[in-house]
Every structure is written in structure tokens, then in C-alpha cells.
């Protein structure tokens, strides 16, 4: 059905860090999106696919991400930026590492900005065959206040999009957390 | 990555007939959804997947589907129902036949009712891993008047959903046609 030379299916997966305090890992819904892609789509055919991991870092409006710290000099801000960047790299390293173990080719990169806008912009630029986004699966009431990246992407991204909802038994005590 | 005994990924594909007069085949967007699934997801791994084709027939509100005919007896209505049913079977036969050629296991069935409601109901019942629906890719103005099955399914279906938009060069002269 496909020659050895046929191009791999390029799947972009938007990943972010957990918002749970003290949990320095990928968010629950990013994990869900990644695991679903491997289990349900890639399966035993890793060479048929290429995973493209995009992590969008959100610049803080006031520059203070961590209220427990005191920033008193330009160097502090530079350090903070470095730290953010290295956190993002750590996140991508995890996904690229797991893909490598399984034998699926992958690429990963970081952008800064509004996640929903940046994801749609990157879809236009790299033209994946499919975009996979995790979702907290919030109810309509919670959704009004937090907005959802996945809903925006389903509407506006220039490629097929699949949203993977977090399982109920994975919901943390505050469902807005992820 | 998967044992021989691991369960196949079950992909439900909602298919319908073309609305183009005199074109007795699958709609353009049904074709698009099916082809995308084969080319981008199934690829060279047919035994990893099972395709579930659902065709929903819409009962006419007044019972007159074909205004060129005259229905004058209960038998006429019965005949019409038979004819509708055989048209639907012909449609499914096409998709099952193509799947068989490629070696992907498949199943197909017909239901009657409002497509969006029936699709979501069948998703709940058969619990596929992914629902693929074609879409005409109508603009907001056209969408208001025709409604879209895909938007409803994305919101309400109880499984991940991917919408495959019709390509621009496949759009018939009336974009509401399919």
C-alpha cells in the first residue's frame, strides 16, 4: 500500500508543562495526546510517521512567573528567561527521547506567544498532516473562564485536528490544573 | 511496540451519498475522509486497524424523495424504502470492497435518522477509537443555512473526532453540493 519512499505522515503534537505546583513534568493532557498517538495511530509502524513536538511558552504579562523569588537586577530577568527556556527544553527532551526509544522519527521546537495563535501559525508554516492537541475536557462553566486552546485550533488550524480529552480518573483535584 | 494480540485501532467513518444530481456515488467529502484515513493513518499497516463505516439515511419529512415520481399507494412507499435501502447498501459495498482489496478489516451498517444525532449515538454504542467525518468546508455564511454534521460531532461525540475538509479543487459548482 505504500512504497518505502512514500513520505511519512507528519503529526504535530502540541505539548506543555503541567500547571500543578511542584510537578515539573509534561501536563496530563500532553501525555494523553502523545500516548494516544502512539497507541492508536503509530502502533507497530514507527517508520510511517514523524512526530513534530511544539511547545509554546507563554510570556508572563508582568515578568514575574514565580512569586516566591525576588528579581532585583537585569541579570535576574536574564536568568529567569534562561530557566524558562531550559524548562521547555527539558519537556521536549522527554518527548523526543521517548519517540527515539520507540523508533519514531521526531522533531521538536519552542515558540513564545499565545499558544492557540502560535499553534495555528506553526501549522500554516510546517503543514502537518494532523495536529493532535490534548484537552482538559472542562465543562462549559469552567471553559468560559479559562478558554480552550483545543477548541480554537479545531476551528482555525489549517489541517485536520484531533482533540484528546483527559480521562476522568486523571483529573487532578482542581480540574483547571493539568 | 504492539503484540500480535493487541487490539486493532477502530476507526469509524461516517459516509453518505453524493447530493449531486445524477451522481449515484459516495459524496466527495466521504471519499476524502476515507482516502485520508488510508493514506495518512492506516498506511502499510492494515492489520493494525479496523474500519467501521456508518451510513445514516435521512427519512424525508414528507416521504417524497424523488419529485419526478408519483406515489399513489402503500406499495409505492414500500418500494421507495427498498430502493433507498439498496442505494445505501451499494454505497457501503463500495467502501467495504475497497477496504477488502487493501486488506483492512471493516464493518458497515445503515441507520435512519438525523445524521448528527445518529452518529453520536452510534459512537456511544460501538466506542471507536477515532471518528473520521468529511466536511464540505463551507464558509460561515453557507454554514448557517445548512448546518454541519462535523461541527456537531466534534462537540458531542464521545470519542476523538477528526474532520477532513474537502479540497478546494474538489468543490462542485454549488459548494453546498457534495
UniProtKB/TrEMBL annotation, chains A, B:
A Pfam family per the record: Usp
Entries under CDD domains matching the protein: USP_At3g01520-like (cd23659)
Source superkingdom: Eukaryota
InterPro entries, sorted: At3g01520-like_plant (IPR044187), Rossmann-like_a/b/a_fold (IPR014729), Universal_stress_UspA (IPR006015), UspA (IPR006016)
GO molecular function: AMP binding
Domain UspA: 27-165
PANTHER family in UniProt: ADENINE NUCLEOTIDE ALPHA HYDROLASES-LIKE SUPERFAMILY PROTEIN
Name this polypeptide is given: UspA domain-containing protein
Organism field: Protea cynaroides
Amino acid at each position: 500500500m505504500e512504497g518505502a519512499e512514500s513520505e511519512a505522515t507528519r503529526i504535530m503534537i502540541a505539548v506543555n508543562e503541567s500547571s500543578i505546583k511542584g510537578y515539573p513534568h509534561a501536563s496530563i493532557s500532553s501525555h494523553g495526546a502523545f500516548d494516544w498517538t502512539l497507541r492508536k495511530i503509530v502502533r507497530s509502524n514507527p517508520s510511517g510517521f514523524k512526530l513534530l513536538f511544539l511547545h509554546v511558552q507563554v510570556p508572563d504579562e508582568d515578568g514575574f512567573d514565580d512569586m516566591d523569588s525576588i528579581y532585583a537586577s537585569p541579570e535576574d530577568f536574564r536568568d529567569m528567561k534562561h530557566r524558562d527556556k531550559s524548562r521547555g527544553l527539558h519537556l521536549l527532551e522527554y518527548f523526543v527521547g521517548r519517540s527515539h526509544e520507540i523508533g519514531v522519527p521526531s522533531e521538536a521546537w519552542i515558540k513564545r506567544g499565545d499558544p492557540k495563535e502560535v499553534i495555528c501559525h506553526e501549522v500554516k508554516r510546517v503543514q502537518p498532516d494532523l495536529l493532535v492537541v490534548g484537552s482538559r475536557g472542562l465543562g462549559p462553566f469552567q471553559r468560559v473562564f479559562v478558554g480552550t486552546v483545543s477548541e480554537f485550533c479545531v476551528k482555525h488550524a489549517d489541517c485536520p485536528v484531533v482533540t484528546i480529552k483527559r480521562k476522568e480518573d486523571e483529573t487532578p483535584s482542581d480540574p483547571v490544573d493539568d
